[in-house]
Design a protein that fits this description.
With about 100 residues, the chain is an alpha+beta fold. It has two helices and three strands, in the order αββαβ. It has a three-stranded mixed sheet, with helices on one face. α2 links the parallel β2 and β3.
Amino acid sequence: ADADPRVAALWNVLTTVIDPELGLDVVTLGLVYGVEIRDDVAWITHTLTTPGCPMERIITDGLRAAGLLVDGVCGVETHLVWDPAWHSGMIAPGAW
């Protein structure tokens, strides 16, 4: 089966979600670990820079809102994980 073009669109739209503390988008920061689309629902597996991050709600809401911008996506489920733990080495090269 061909790759669902909505997956690429989803990755693209998630670059509009900015971590307010670091000023970079969540994809560049390496916070999004994976995305898939099942039954027209976008599933986004992500982490935060630190457990208890005060920006959790802002970032999660941002991911959900962005996911709904993709044509053919009817819902968004976010899955917050702490393993693997995020570290600054996961930031895209040259982003700083």
